[in-house]
Amino acid sequence: MSTENRYELNKNLAQMLKGGVIMDVTTPEQAKIAEAAGAAAVMALERIPADIRAAGGVSRMSDPKMIKGIQDAVSIPVMAKCRIGHFVEAQLLEAIEIDYIDESEVLSPADDVFHINKHNFKVPFVCGARDLGEALRRIEEGASMIRTKGEPGTGDIVQAVRHIRLMNQEIARITSMREDELFNRAKELQVSYELVKYVHDHKRLPVVNFAAGGVATPADAALMMQLGAEGVFVGSGIFKSGNPAKRAAAIVQAVTNYKDAKLIAKLSEDLGEAMVGINENEIALLMAERGK
Amino acid sequence: MSDNTKLNKKIQIGVLAVQGAFAEHRTMLEKLGVETFEIRQLRDLNQHFDGLVLPGGESTVQGKLLRDLGLFEPLRERIESGLPTFGTCAGLILLAEKLSNDGHTYFATTPVTVERNAYGRQLGSFYTEENFEGIGKIPMTFIRAPLIQHARQDVQVLATVQNQIVAVRYGNQLGISFHPELNNDLRIHRYFLESIIQARTQYSISA
């Protein structure tokens, strides 16, 4: 099969995930809870971002055995993270037939200059971005899905909001540009003219764009959807909360009916304790600064 | 008939929009000149609709949301009583009477046995071009796709790939393993509108 076909198929899988919630899980039991609650996919990792943050040190790709245990436990797609630039970790994830690789700033970067050449892989990649330039650079490298970086493991939605607003503003600006201005914009964003032209013509990214990093409540998820996200990743927000199954199911419904305030108010009742959360100015490590 | 022919404006299609690639189906149908709307909750069923689309996505998610949102029983009754329904991928799973590798079933209105994720994980996803009964060779995109292992005798088989059934029609129900909404080819959507919806209503083609 041609490389181009494979890339299309990988973008297509992201299209199937739209309107869905992708949940971080660390065990097969959690994966089953997530699936039963209506997760469209799960992200298998040894430690959720809040714990990575608390533990400090270098964080790496998870044990393949642990990931396989989760693959066996559920029928929905299973994603896993590799370090930015660590193409061998990505090769291992491809070898165990992961459905999606997240080249993620949540783990410690393995390369402070180069991202993975994702065109060399048959499995799809999702990457984080804070602005349009980062998003298009990752797409140029072969990412078939984008998510906002937000700030993982904080339970604070402010950065994810900032990132998606910025992306929307930059897309709107390109859309309104004259065609002869696009060449210079491509140069400024350090991406090809073709990608900028696509954004100009279609008023959107060429791949699906999810929200991630700080979603903790049904209202957070609906906020990101109303701001234009096509689906939501929830990391620490579910299994760091008082009643994971109930909160997960409520977030899933809030994403489907993200404009129905009455319903979301009802879904938000009695969810138990939300994850504690850390404010932006209290964090020592900004993961979103990794991998530009 | 050319691709530019518009079907009668009065046809209204409800597209299940609880999760998945529903926007792509709406785009295809609107190119054919019909009106569409999204079904996200019970009150959306108050509108009139001549046909229903069950899009691709994750069947476990869609099945759960159908129940949580109270949509399941009203939609099942309508499908069973003859509402033209077009399911792709996850939508086919929702329609299947039996799932060979899953204890759940959903609407269970099409007498076929379906295997979920029959081609494996994402690495098994593929693109091909094969014949579709009455249409000819069409593009087929399979994404972590199911296939139809067995169809009852009164189910019409519309397409096969590698000797496996990938498209069936049972009465007014059209169930397809692959994703005609992902390739820029309107012929299967047109088949649904013409052969299934128009055949049972008085709508005419307004060329």
Task: Identify the most extensive interface between protein chains.
Answer: A-B, 41 and 36 residues
Largest sheet of chain A: 8 strands, parallel
Structural class of chain A: alpha/beta
Strand order of the largest sheet of chain A: 7-6-5-4-3-2-1-8
N-end to C-end Cα span of chain B: 9 Å
- Could you give the count of β-strands of chain B? 12
- Principal-axes geometry of chain B comes out as globular
Strand order in the largest sheet of chain B: 2-1-3-4-12-11-10
Explained architecture:
The complex is a heterodimer of chains A (292) and B (207). Chain A has helices at 3-17, 28-37, 49-55, 64-73, 87-95, 132-140, 158-175, 182-189, 193-202, 218-226, 236-239, 244-256, 261-267; strands spanning 21-25, 41-44, 78-83, 100-104, 125-129, 145-148, 208-210, 232-234. Chain A has 292 residues and is α/β, with parallel strands linked by helices. Chain A has an 8-stranded parallel beta sheet, sandwiched between helices. In chain A, helix 6 links the parallel strand 5 and strand 6. The model of chain A has no long low-confidence stretch (mean pLDDT 94). Chain B is an alpha/beta fold and 207 residues long. Chain B has 5 helices and 12 strands. In chain B, strand 11 and strand 12 (173-176) form a beta hairpin. Chain B is globular, with a radius of gyration of 16 Å. Chains A and B meet through helix 1, helix 2 and helix 12 of A and helix 1 and helix 2 of B.
